[in-house]
Prior knowledge:
Elements: H1 3-25, E1 29-34, H2 37-40, E2 50-56, H3 63-75, E3 84-90, H4 91-95, H5 105-114, E4 116-120, H6 132-147, H7 150-157, H8 166-184, H9 193-201, H10 209-219, H11 226-254, H12 259-272
Parallel strand pairs: 2-3
Antiparallel strand pairs: 1-2, 1-4
InterPro entries: NT_sf
Protein name: Nucleotidyltransferase domain-containing protein
Organism: Pseudonocardia yunnanensis
Amino acid sequence: MTTTDSTAAARAVADESAHAYQDAFAERLVGAYLLGSLAYGGYAPAVSDIDLAVVLTDTREGDHNIIATTGETLCAQGSLHRKLSVFWSSLPALRDGHDDGRFPALDRLELAAHGVLLLGRDVTQQVARPATAELLLESARFAVDVLATDEVTAEFRRPCRLLTDPVWFTKAVLFPVRFLYTSTRADGRAASNAEAIAWYLAQPEPTAASLVRLAARVRAGHPLDPEQVAPELAAGLIPLYQHYIDDQTRRLRRATAPTSIVTAFARWRHQLA
C-alpha cells in the first residue's frame, strides 16, 4: 500500500469514527476534527496516530464512559482503528483556554491552528490558543509523568522494546526534539514533527544528530533494524535527554514554574547521569 493509499485509509477511519461519536452524542456534538499529521501533513503509516477531536456543547456525568466505550467499539474493528486517539472537551471550556475532558494544551493549539472539520460546524476560531508558558509547563509535566519513570529510565539504559517497536522508538527520540522546538516558538502555531526535526538538525552541533536522523527515517517507513539502532541509542539517547532536561530546566526556572516540576527535572537528570 502506498503512502497515499495509507493516508486515505486512515482518513476513512477518522471519518467513520467522527460519525460514531456523532451517533453517541447526537445534538450535543458541535464538531469533529482531524488533528495531527492527517490534518497538517506528514502522516507516517508506520508510526502516526489517527488524531480525532470531538467538541461538545457541554460535558456531563457519563461522558467519559461514552468516549471510552465508543472508542473500544471502534478499536475492535482492526489494527488501523487501534491507532485512533481521541481528544474531547466542551466548546465553553475551549473558549476559556482549558478543557473539561481530555484535551492537552498542545492539542488545543493544533485544533486552533490546523483542525480540519469532518462534520458539524467549524468553531476553531473560537478556541483559545495556549500561551508558550502553558505549553512549556504541560510538556514538562508530561515528561515527568511518562518519560521520567523508573521503567522508562531502565529502558533507556538497556533498550529492549526500543529495538523492536518503531512507534515507541520514534516517539522516544522525537519527543524531546519537538518539545525543544515548541519552547522556542512565540507565534502561537502548532509545529509538525518534520518542522521540529529540520529545526533541530539545523542547530550548531545538535546532540545525537545521527539518532534523530535515524528516527526521522524510521518514521518515514525505514525498517527498524536492531543492529543499526542499538549503537545509535547507546551513543545518543541519554545525551539527547540530558540536553533536553538542561534546556527545559532553564526555561522552567525563568517561567517561575512550580518547584515540584523543577525538582522532578533535577531528579530525572541525576538518574540519567
